[in-house]
Automatic annotation (TrEMBL), chain A:
<keyword id="KW-0472">Membrane</keyword>
<keyword id="KW-0812">Transmembrane</keyword>
<feature type="transmembrane region" description="Helical">
    <location>
        <begin position="189"/>
        <end position="210"/>
    </location>
</feature>
<dbReference type="Pfam" id="PF00528">
    <property type="entry name" value="BPD_transp_1"/>
</dbReference>
<protein>
    <submittedName>
        <fullName>ABC transporter permease</fullName>
    </submittedName>
</protein>
<dbReference type="InterPro" id="IPR051204">
    <property type="entry name" value="ABC_transp_perm/SBD"/>
</dbReference>
<feature type="transmembrane region" description="Helical">
    <location>
        <begin position="157"/>
        <end position="177"/>
    </location>
</feature>
<keyword id="KW-0813">Transport</keyword>
<dbReference type="InterPro" id="IPR000515">
    <property type="entry name" value="MetI-like"/>
</dbReference>
UniProtKB/TrEMBL annotation, chain B:
<feature type="domain" description="ABC transmembrane type-1">
    <location>
        <begin position="19"/>
        <end position="203"/>
    </location>
</feature>
<feature type="transmembrane region" description="Helical">
    <location>
        <begin position="180"/>
        <end position="206"/>
    </location>
</feature>
<dbReference type="Pfam" id="PF00528">
    <property type="entry name" value="BPD_transp_1"/>
</dbReference>
<feature type="region of interest" description="Disordered">
    <location>
        <begin position="213"/>
        <end position="238"/>
    </location>
</feature>
<keyword id="KW-0812">Transmembrane</keyword>
<dbReference type="InterPro" id="IPR000515">
    <property type="entry name" value="MetI-like"/>
</dbReference>
<feature type="transmembrane region" description="Helical">
    <location>
        <begin position="82"/>
        <end position="101"/>
    </location>
</feature>
<keyword id="KW-1133">Transmembrane helix</keyword>
<keyword id="KW-0813">Transport</keyword>
Length: 222, 238
């Protein structure tokens, strides 16, 4: 198989392992971009999803916003933000955040809506404040689904952060973009393998976080 | 504004030509993905042990950046539309398989039992009972797949003018005409929104028994769980 030869050649070449274009450097850049984008998207998507889900209003508006967000072509948006804002971190972050907010927003909303009403009513009957009901009753029950939404957003970001290389930033996309222009397919396949590996690592991290953060009672019922 | 639709001649299409090209490159893969996903999903429903490994494989395929996918394929398919359409088919497949599996699985046991009692065989039961009930979930999957497919075609620009409307992004840079980039982004966003709306209409036509605004939070009666396919879909969405 051609592709497997490429992967072997890429990873066994010592030159790919150190220096400013080495795998550790690029990997670390990619992790940083991804975490920043995921953090910003969560900062926008989570509160809005939690509050609208709690009150059960605005579902139609949310799904419109989410569709609009998904409809914007990430790559085209990158070119436009670069034209408008010049080169830098901000024009890369905008498309990535636009990409990641819809899954977080919609899943959080649906997760909050899927909480069984009786415990919520019971909590209200016991005199808990709305904010306590949201954070201490609904959130723990909705957490597995919310983490699922964050996970799919994270995987999309990891795979799409490669476009940062097109506007001269680093990250694993460097291998793909440079490989394309140098007709060095070994580099392209190596970069793609690293990105796919990082996506798998993301799955593993979310699996561990879910194990640690979801209350055992909620886990049992799922 | 009048330069907005003035497409440079190196693209060899006018604005409408690019739109047709874009839709063809985006929608044929979704159709191909659906044709592949239907039997694969049925296999996963039948053989429960098959579903987790299929999900793992598809998640990894999904994580391959589209640009890398395109570049690797150039070796085999050259700089053609096919090079763009194969990865998009794979991505559509990845979104659609879980959507169809969850949709078919969400059919209540009583409904299946009733169909069996009426003398439906397994094939007829699948086509006439399970699939129609799964339509909302399948359409939800098609919406995500279609919108992301339309958005991803633009990346084809990077492998040599295979990005349809995305090619405008390249021309915007080399001719220093930012309005062409705006044209590209706005036109493909509008196409995605229109395709999405069309699918909603199709769903309403195919499921006359459902209230048309069923996705909204307020119309759902208390105690009824929301469409189980929605979180599952977001899970698979690119």
């Amino acid at each position: 198989m051609n592709v497997i030869n490429f992967v072997n050649a890429f990873f066994s070449d010592g030159a790919h392992w150190h220096g400013y274009d080495g795998i550790p450097t690029r990997l670390w850049e990619h992790v940083q971009y991804s975490l920043e984008a995921l953090g910003l998207a969560a900062l926008i998507g989570l509160p809005i999803g939690l509050v609208t889900g709690h009150y059960g209003r605005g579902g139609n508006v949310l799904s419109l916003v989410a569709t609009a967000g998904r409809a914007l072509p990430t790559f085209g948006l990158l070119v436009v933000t670069t034209i408008v804002l010049g080169f830098g971190m901000l024009p890369v972050m905008i498309p990535l955040v636009v990409l990641a907010v819809p899954p977080i927003l919609v899943t959080t909303y649906e997760a909050m809506r899927s909480v069984d009403p009786p415990p919520v009513d019971a909590a209200r009957g016991m005199g808990m404040r709305e904010s306590d009901i949201l954070l201490r009753v609904e959130l723990p029950v909705a957490l597995p689904l919310i983490l699922g939404g964050l996970r799919s957003a994270a995987i999309q970001i990891v795979s799409t952060a490669t476009i940062a290389a097109y506007v001269s930033l680093g990250g694993l996309g460097r291998y793909i973009v440079d490989g394309l222009y140098q007709h060095d397919y070994e580099k392209v396949v190596g970069g793609a393998t690293l990105v796919a590996g990082m996506a798998l690592a993301t799955l593993a991290v979310f699996w561990a976080v879910t194990r640690a953060a979801v209350s055992p009672g909620v886990r049992r019922s799922n | 504004m009048n330069r907005f639709f003035d497409i440079p001649s190196d693209l060899q299409h006018d604005w409408f030509g690019l739109i047709v090209l874009h839709l063809r490159e985006a929608l044929l893969p979704v159709l191909g993905g659906l044709l592949l996903a239907l039997p694969l999903a049925q296999l996963c429903v039948r053989l429960r042990w098959l579903y987790p490994p299929v999900l793992w494989v598809t998640t990894v395929l999904y994580a391959i950046p589209s640009l890398a996918f395109f570049v690797v394929l150039i070796d085999y398919t050259g700089q053609t539309e096919l090079t763009v359409m194969i990865p998009l088919t794979v991505y559509s497949l990845v979104v659609l398989v879980p959507a169809i599996v969850d949709g078919v699985r969400s059919v209540p046991q009583e409904t299946l039992a009733a169909a069996t009692a009426m003398g439906f065989g397994p094939v007829r039961r699948y086509v006439q009972v399970q699939l129609p009930i799964a339509v909302p979930a399948i359409i939800a999957g098609l919406r995500v797949a279609t919108v992301s497919s339309i958005s991803l075609v633009s990346v084809g620009m990077l492998i040599g003018n295979q990005g349809a409307l995305g090619n405008l992004l390249h021309d915007a840079q080399i001719y220093n005409r930012p309005e062409l980039a705006w044209n590209s982004v706005i036109t493909s966003a509008v196409l995605a929104v229109l395709a999405d709306a069309l699918l909603v209409v199709v769903r309403i036509l195919l499921t006359p028994w459902m209230p048309s605004g069923a996705r909204g939070g307020r119309s759902r009666p208390a105690g009824v769980r929301p469409d189980p396919a929605v979180p599952a879909l977001e899970d698979a969405a690119r």
